[in-house]
């Protein structure tokens, strides 16, 4: 007997009266397949809704936010440049109107 054989566990044959698996109630395969189909349908719907959400983010929300924030940065940097280079004071008369106009301009080309 080698060292390898000492780690091998011999399979004991179960006696028919102690087999617990056979005593469990059986479930028809029709019930299991219908549950599996409903689970797979729900999984497909979930994946489709995630894909739609991802498309909404990448096609609508991110470009809109990028344009809006890009325009705000452009106006801010233009104001700083004009004040620094040409000594001109730039004042926005209505911040709310300015922000609304920026949002409308950003959404106009989407």
TrEMBL record:
Bilayer-spanning residue ranges: none
Database matches in InterPro entries: Mim2 (IPR037652)
Low complexity biased stretches: 23-35
Pfam family, one: Mim2
GO cellular component terms, A-Z: mitochondrial outer membrane
An example Gene Ontology biological process: mitochondrial outer membrane translocase complex assembly
Disordered, as annotated region: 1-45
Domain of life assignment: Eukaryota
Name of this chain's protein: Uncharacterized protein
Organism: Apodospora peruviana
């Amino acid at each position: 007997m080698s060292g390898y054989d000492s780690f091998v566990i011999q399979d004991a044959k179960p006696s028919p009266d102690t087999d617990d698996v056979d005593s469990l109630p059986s479930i028809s395969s029709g019930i299991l397949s219908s549950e599996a189909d409903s689970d797979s349908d729900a999984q497909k719907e979930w994946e489709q809704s995630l894909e739609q959400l991802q498309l909404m983010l990448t096609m609508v929300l991110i470009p809109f936010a990028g344009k809006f924030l890009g325009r705000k940065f452009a106006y801010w940097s233009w104001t700083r440049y004009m004040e620094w280079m040409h000594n001109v004071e730039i004042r926005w008369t209505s911040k709310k109107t300015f922000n609304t106009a920026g949002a409308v301009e950003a959404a106009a080309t989407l």
